[in-house]
Specification:
The protein is α/β, with parallel strands linked by helices. It contains seven helices and eleven strands. The strands form two sheets. It has a seven-stranded mixed sheet with strand order 3-2-1-4-5-11-10, with helices on both faces. Helix 1 packs antiparallel against helix 2.
Length: 281
Amino acid sequence: MNETFRREESAPVTALSAHEEHIQWLQESCLKNRFLPQPAPDSVFVGDGDFKAVGTEFLGHFIRMGGLQPESRVLDIGCGIGRMAVPLTQYLDPDKGRYNGIDPVEGGIAWCRRFVTSVYPSFAFQRVDIAHELYNPQGKISGKALKLPYADRHFDFAIMTSIVTHLPPDEVLVYLSEIGRLLKPGGRLFMTAFVVDPIAAANETGRRDPRLAFQRDGDGPCWFVPDLPRLAAVGFDDGFLDGALNRAGLSTALKSLGSWRGQAADHYQDVFVAERTGGGR
């Protein structure tokens, strides 16, 4: 092997290291930036954990696992009070990139418009009155008949963090069908879930999150947690989401099981990254 070939062979490793260093620098900058908008603690009504820390963690996952690019057009389904949006303001190109967040809860959308869009005009937020028995019980749009207000093949990247963990299976199919419609060919979905495989169901490690003692719901693919509202935490049989993605025209590029089940992982929920099939952009 000659010296030229050895240098060319090692180049990708060097490039990858530089890329990782940049991601780490970006995450540290977000955590230290006291000027980034942050809601009052009593206003964070969706999700556990520190607002800034969780959002910054997912920024890293979107780039490392999902392949998110600065010039991407991003759709964030269930954007809440902007936990994913705020760190993305430091990554998406303000001229080429775009962000659209939707949520059924008006309070979160109003906060995001006031504190995010006013400073970052390429970030837009819209309330969509989707019915949900926990988060929006009076909603006028059934999750079984969802049609999101965007054109076909409009987005490069879609985010569904902690969404299918609160949906029944028939609505999961509709949401994923909409994602398939909205993503450009080659576009990607980043989705978190609870996949209840035999190891997770039996708690074979003995270290599964005690809050998630899932039990199967009849003969269907769903698992619910006893003594909690049915949609407070929803798990699915291993294979159900894989099939649902495929049915929506999305090919699973990555499936990474999370630490909730008691195994080592750098993310809590299970992660799917799926790519829209259908040729070039």
